Each structure stands twice: as structure tokens, then as C-alpha cells.
């Protein structure tokens, strides 16, 4: 995909620097290959022993995501990081399909453990951004007939038989329909409530903050995973560090389960040292992301496999009810365009 992007806009690369906060220590991502950097010798021994035993006894047969994690990495690894973090994000892991995280969950073995030091592997180990650090530039530079694009339409109905899309602005007739809205929403719009009700997703509350710059576990990191139930958030990231952009203050995002209260977030940020006092937060914008993470279950996979509507194409993370990043969405767009042609 980088070749595609580079034709549109000059890019800069950055090596990912993310970690996992466990107590007062930060372990490099992924945890499965970097846990030997922990200072707690007893925990290190337990993690390695359980990992090796799991690898030897693993029969490769899993009923769900939780069983796969347990059989592949052992109980210590699961209870220390894999279970608490992912339960914050997804809830009950026994309901999720084995491959629900796709390529975003690295399939590591004990041979991958880097005993010599930190090793950033897995997805986004190298990140690319437009050289002007404005992602909107990629969209603006696409060869598109922008005058034919109608924005801010709220779809109220989709008639597959007559090939009509009704919005709050107009009624549109289509020859080909590419749907990138959440599949659950699409199914409601065509009147298939039975299938739509079977698709579930995890909603989030995200706090975008401008904070005082100071030394903290996030100072040099792009983002931190927070597995502990002690804190309401599961990830804290730094826009400033990711974009390698100098601000007078640090700009961060805090990802939380839905309906998390700001005061609980502030208390947690103080406890782990990202801010010292309340007034270190200069600005805060709270955003609710409905259906942010699709829950990939055997039932949802069956619905996706059986999708078949004339001249309708599903693309993107939400359109095809999968799990992917920005580059996956662009790739979906290219593939869909080829299919239509």
C-alpha cells in the first residue's frame, strides 16, 4: 500500500515506540516477546515456564478467542496482560471467534522471545504519515470529482429492489452501491432487523486532551496499553509523539470503555504520572465512538459469508464487519473499484 500512498503524497516513516504499563514498569509491545525485560524474576520465570508448557501441549484446537490465548501462551501471560486488557476492550472473550483480531494479534512462539532487549514487532512496527503531517492531504490529493460528492447525508432507507438510497437531503438511484457504514446499520436500513440484531460492537469514550509536558511513562512512547482494572482506560496515546510534531503542550488521547467519567480518567492519569495535578489539563474534548470495535463472533462471520445483494459491495472495517486499519480500508477501496470495473 505504501506505493499507492507515495504516488499521492510524500511520506515520512517512524518506528513505533509503544509499551504496556504493568505496575511501575513499561514493557515493549508485543508483551509475548518482551516480558523478559520485567524486573520481577518470579513473574518472568512463571511467564516463560507457562509459555513453554503451553507451546508443548497446545493441540491447535480452539473454540473461542479466550481458549486460543490460554492454550497458546499459558495462564501467566493471559492473567498478566492478555485477558485483562482485551476484556476491557471486548468484554467476554469466550464469545469471540478465534481469529477475531486477524493480523493485529501476532502469532509468536518462544523462539521469538528477544532476551537481549526490547523488540518492537507486529502491526504498525513502522508507521507512515504525509510529510506535512496532515492526513487530510491524502484525501485532497486523490483524483476525484469532488463537485459530484454530496456530504453530510443521513441515510434513512435503502431499497435494494428499486436501487434507491433515501437520505435527509434527497433520493439517489444507484447502479452500484458501495457500503462502508457499519454492516449492522446497513441491515437495519434494508429492513433485515433479525440479522442486524445479531451483530454486536463495543462502543468507546475517547478523551482528547492538551496537557502540560512533563516526564511520564508516556514521554517517549507513542501509546501505552493499560491492562490493570485499577484504571478506567485501556490505552493512552500521544499525538505529539506519533506525528513527531512539536507543540507547546503534549496532545494525547485516552481510550476508555463506554460511559467512562472524566473525573475517573483524570484520577487515573494522575496516579500513573502522566499529569501531576488537574490544572495540567489545558483542554479536553470528550467523544463517544458508537460501535467502535466490531465483535467478531461465529454468528457474525456466518452473516458476512452469506451476504449477497445485487450490485452491492461491502468495504472497509465497518462495511465488511471486520477488524482493520486505515491501509486496509484503502486496499478495500481499490479492490472494490476493480470488482465494479
Topology:
Layout (H helix, E strand, L loop, with lengths): L1 H7 L2 E5 L2 E5 L2 E4 L2 H4 L6 H17 L7 H9 L1 H16 L35 E5 L5 H5 L14 E5 L4 E4 L3 E3 L3 E3 L3 H7 L3 H4 L4 E11 L11 E3 L9 E4 H4 L7 E8 L4 H10 L9 E14 L3 H8 L6 E3 L1 H4 L6 H15 L1
Parallel strand pairs: 2-10, 8-14
Antiparallel strand pairs: 1-4, 2-3, 5-6, 6-7, 9-12, 9-13, 10-11, 11-12
Helix pairs in contact: 3-4, 4-5
Overview in brief:
The chain has about 350 residues and is α+β, with helices and mostly antiparallel strands. Helices cover about 30% and strands about 25% of the residues. It folds into 3 domains: about 15-110, Orthogonal Bundle (protoporphyrinogen ix oxidase, domain 3), CATH 1.10.3110; about 155-200 and about 295-340, FAD/NAD(P)-binding domain; about 200-295, Polyamine Oxidase, Chain A, domain 2.
Describe the protein's architecture and organization:
The protein is an alpha+beta fold and 341 residues long. Helix content is 32%, strand content 23%. The chain has 3 domains: 96 residues, Orthogonal Bundle (protoporphyrinogen ix oxidase, domain 3), CATH 1.10.3110; 94 residues, FAD/NAD(P)-binding domain, CATH 3.50.50; 94 residues, Polyamine Oxidase, Chain A, domain 2 (Alpha-Beta Complex), CATH 3.90.660. The protein has a 7-stranded mixed beta sheet. Strand 2 and strand 3 form a beta hairpin. The longest helix has 17 residues. It is globular. The two termini are 20 Å apart.
Amino acid at each position: 500500500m505504501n506505493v499507492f500512498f507515495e504516488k499521492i503524497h510524500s511520506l515520512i516513516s517512524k518506528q513505533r515506540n509503544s509499551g504496556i504499563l504493568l505496575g511501575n514498569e513499561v514493557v515493549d509491545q508485543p508483551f509475548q516477546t518482551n516480558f523478559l525485560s520485567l524486573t520481577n524474576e518470579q513473574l518472568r520465570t512463571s511467564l516463560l515456564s507457562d509459555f513453554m508448557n503451553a507451546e508443548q501441549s497446545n493441540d491447535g484446537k480452539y473454540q473461542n478467542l479466550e481458549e486460543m490465548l490460554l492454550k497458546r501462551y499459558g495462564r501467566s501471560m493471559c492473567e498478566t496482560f492478555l485477558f485483562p486488557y482485551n476484556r476491557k476492550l471486548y468484554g467476554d472473550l469466550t464469545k469471540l471467534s478465534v481469529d477475531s483480531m486477524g493480523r493485529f494479534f501476532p502469532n509468536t512462539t518462544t523462539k521469538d522471545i528477544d532476551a537481549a532487549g526490547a523488540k518492537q514487532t507486529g502491526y504498525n512496527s513502522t508507521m507512515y504519515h504525509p510529510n506535512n503531517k496532515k492526513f487530510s492531504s491524502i484525501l485532497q490529493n486523490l483524483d476525484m470529482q469532488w463537485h459530484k460528492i454530496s456530504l453530510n447525508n443521513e441515510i434513512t432507507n435503502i431499497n435494494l429492489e428499486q436501487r434507491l438510497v433515501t437520505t435527509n437531503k434527497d433520493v439517489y438511484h444507484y447502479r452500484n452501491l458501495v457500503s462502508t457504514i457499519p454492516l449492522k446499520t446497513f441491515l437495519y436500513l434494508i429492513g433485515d432487523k433479525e440479522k442486524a440484531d445479531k451483530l454486536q460492537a463495543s462502543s468507546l469514550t475517547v478523551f482528547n486532551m492538551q496537557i502540560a509536558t512533563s516526564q511520564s511513562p508516556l514521554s517517549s512512547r507513542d501509546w501505552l496499553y493499560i491492562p490493570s482494572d485499577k484504571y478506567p482506560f485501556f490505552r493512552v496515546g500521544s499525538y505529539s509523539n506519533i506525528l513527531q510534531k512539536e507543540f507547546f503542550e503534549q496532545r494525547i488521547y485516552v481510550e476508555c470503555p463506554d460511559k467512562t467519567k472524566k473525573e475517573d480518567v483524570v484520577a487515573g492519569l494522575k496516579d500513573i504520572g502522566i499529569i501531576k495535578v488537574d490544572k495540567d489539563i489545558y483542554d479536553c474534548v470528550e467523544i463517544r465512538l458508537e460501535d467502535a470495535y466490531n465483535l467478531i463472533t461465529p454468528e457474525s462471520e456466518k452473516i458476512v459469508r452469506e451476504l449477497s445483494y445485487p450490485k452491492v459491495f461491502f468495504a472497509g472495517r465497518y462495511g465488511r464487519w471486520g477488524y482493520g486499519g486505515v491501509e486496509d480500508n484503502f486496499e478495500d477501496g481499490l479492490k472494490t473499484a476493480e470488482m465494479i470495473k
